Amino acid sequence: MTAIADFPLAAPVQGFLAGGPKKLLIGGEWVDAASGRTFATHDPATGNVLTEVAHGQAEDVDRAVRAARRAFDEGPWVAMKPNERERLLWRVGDILSERAAEFGQLEALDNGKSVAIASAVDVAWAADVFRYYAGWATKIEGSTVNVSMPFAPDAQFHAYTLREPVGVCGLIVPWNFPLLMASWKLAPALAAGNTVILKPAEQTPLTALLLGEVFQEAGFPPGVVNIVSGFGDAGAALSAHEDVDKIAFTGSTEVGKKIVDAAKGNLKKVTLELGGKSPNIVFADADFDAAVEGSVNAWLFNHGQCCVAGTRMFVEDSIFDEFTQAVAHAASQVKIGPGLDPTTQLGPLVSQEQFDKVTGYLAAGLADGARALTGGKRWGETGYFVEPTVFVDVKPEFSIVQEEIFGPVVAALPFNAADGVAAAANDSIYGLAAGIWTKDISKAHRTARQIKAGSVWINQYNGFDTAMPFGGYKQSGWGRELGAAGLDAYTITKSVNIAL
Ligand code: NAP
Ligand code: MG
User: Fold this and answer.
1) What pLDDT digit, counting tens, does each position of 279-330 carry?
2) Looking at residues 123-141, what average pLDDT do you find?
3) CB under 8 Å to 179, separation ≥6 — which residues?
4) CA 383/CA 45 separation, integer angstroms
5) Which residues does 153 contact at the CB level (< 8 Å), separation at least 6?
6) 172 CB near ligand 1 (under 6 Å)
7) Among 175, 249, 337, 403, whose Cα sits 20 to 30 Å from the Cα of 473?
8) For the chain, how far is it from start to end, CA to CA, in angstroms?
9) Which ranges of 42-81 would DSSP assign to H, the alpha helix?
């Protein structure tokens, strides 16, 4: 592995890291945690400390909620016209594009992902999301309703609906796409006129805090965007807070359920993007080479740390051996290394905890009787690297088939076309995404309808777009992000009826 010293940090990144413990953004001010405590964030390629970050807890969450409430109830945010919100959000997108290299390096450092992917996918897409929702700010419309009012047959009415912001929104995001998951929530929330408290993941707080500087530079009024770095207890305090109107969460299904419980107190609105164990279905008539490449990407992209990862690979029996061998070969060729190396394709997992979890699943799969066509163990001696692993000889009940591993591991299962594949593909508590590979257009559409998942990608994988709604069936979540549906999730409808 190449030494990290070979990939020097850009001056602004060095400056950001050197600038002492990072603070919380509350009411437009950068402040220490009330306790004065900080915690370290690490480089997963080396385990080295990158910098200290303020350790926000319930008291800080409460301060941030009060700042967000003031900003929501008083000017200047509430008085701003939609086209002013549009301009502010567009400016955030532009600054992100201008500073893409800096954000990309910082994300690669904090998360471990390849700097090439961090810049081209995470940062570039986040900028696109801010511009997309900037455009929506001026297009939030109610409707006029032609009411009948049967109990007032002789009267006339003028009735219409207003779409208003929900209020103070808590946004809780995970570590796998730290900046991007924050942008999916921040942009529609702000386009609709809400105020927010963002809680980044403890493993990856840095790009969220740098984004706080961008919001200030863009000219957002104080208190509209508040950022509280911390641990699960800060997320729990936000979810339970009586003055928070909505929680938008991305993370594990386990924590998603805790948020639902915590939200009961004031019945705040909740949207959830949770885990997955997505099927990727390869029919024998697929374009073989394209399906191999796409299927490797399906479970290996971002080191398998994707909620949509296509980790159950269903392959038609007549091509099963040839196809799984080809996938294993392609996976064994990827370049493993630190995220800061621009040629790295597979970086380290995010943390010791995640490394232990993934290697635990490798051991469990082998103990259950699965066979690794490639991989099956850690890579190298240091850092949280795991070899890309393709398991065959698996049974549906194995933990590596049922549970979300969140690492570079796929389980391959053969199917017989005469029996159909939908029942096996739907045998999961999750329903986030699915891939289908075939040249038969009818079969593709038929199978897409049979799969219980929020997104179905045909002859591609990870076919996301900012304009396409994304979210889960079953235990993969509640509600949708992105697209017009993503905006709806941050508005509430008021009906107004006037007797003329
Ligand atoms: P997680 O615990 O669900 O964390 C997601 C976010 O929720 C983090 O900001 C976390 O803070 C916060 N949080 C933790 N406990 C909370 C609580 N009781 N109330 C409110 N917020 C809380 O996920 P993780 O521990 O980072 O990863 C565990 C597993 O979740 C992974 O192995 C993976 O299977 C899955 N995961 C899924 C996604 C996805 O996109 N669907 C993303 C990440 C992880 P802290 O960072 O301080 O814990
Ligand atoms: Mg956690």
Assistant:
1) 999 999 999 999 999 999 999 999 999 999 999 999 999 999 999 999 999 9
2) 98
3) 103, 107, 122, 123, 126, 207, 208, 211
4) 5
5) none
6) yes
7) 175
8) 76
9) 58-73
